[in-house]
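Posting for a labmate who doesn't have an account.
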Amino acid sequence: MAIFWILGIGIALLVVSPPIAGYIFSSLTLYSHRQPIVRTPKEYGMAYEDVSFPSIDGIRLAGWFIPVRGVADKAVILTHPFPFNRHGFLARHQGFPPLCGIDVDLLTTARALHQAGYPVLMFDFRNHGESGAGRTGIGLNEYQDVLGAVDYLRGRPDLEKPEIGFVSFCMGANATLIALAKGAERVAPVRFVVAIQPVSAGVFVREYLRAVYTPLSVPLAGIVDWFLQRRGGYPLAAMTPLPCLKDVKAPVLYIQAPGDRWTTVADTQSFYDGTPGEKEIWWIEGITRRFDTYNYVGEHPERIIAFVKGRFSR
């Protein structure tokens, strides 16, 4: 008799578990788990200001402005991945379900840019860190936050008609590329984008499930997609910067580890191929864990700094 109970429970779990998992993953995608702000630029010897400004659709965004002495005519905006905050990702604060056991420190990249002589703006996207609430769109909503950041820099009195550049990670790269396509006159001061591991959400969810939960879990992506759309989100297939890239005029440096198990080389290559203007791609070999790439570029920023210096006017 016990065997029938065990079989019954097993069948019930097979029926119920996928919808529950789909709902949980759709919740994580739509609303993220907020990482607390526990590090500041001061730990890296950088003076900073706590700042706040609106997205172009009115959501309050919190951030830091790291100035240089005097009035500057160039500045860099650093945008973070999902589900990070402005300073990075701490595994112990990631909530459930766990995404990754690796800590990521974006302040090392900010320090390299600051040491190169540039003011840096770092901020939390909507529904991340200390910023206001809003649904996540893996770039499709967050591009409005990017344009709000550009407006903010253009209005600072210690920046004189600044040229602006972006160093943007994952969702931040998606949002930045979409903003450059949709931003019209707002993005006129933008001189370049360093796009570190932009991604199509449909590819990411599929490959993440395959890598973390075995290939048997890949069909769960369809359930996640179903819940996303019925809860007011975008289809997974729509959450990609690819359709906007034809309208990106600024030079782009794409960065990707081809061994990253949470995406595909073909997805990154499609971004590069779809960008009509000046572009480069830096394949970082020997890395298989996505978050290690975020740390790698901060620890080895030389190529990024060279690209930045070469695209700002002298």
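Reply:
Got it, the structure tokens are right above this. Strands lie at 49-54, 60-66, 72-79, 88-89, 104-105, 120-123, 159-169, 190-196, 252-256, 279-283.
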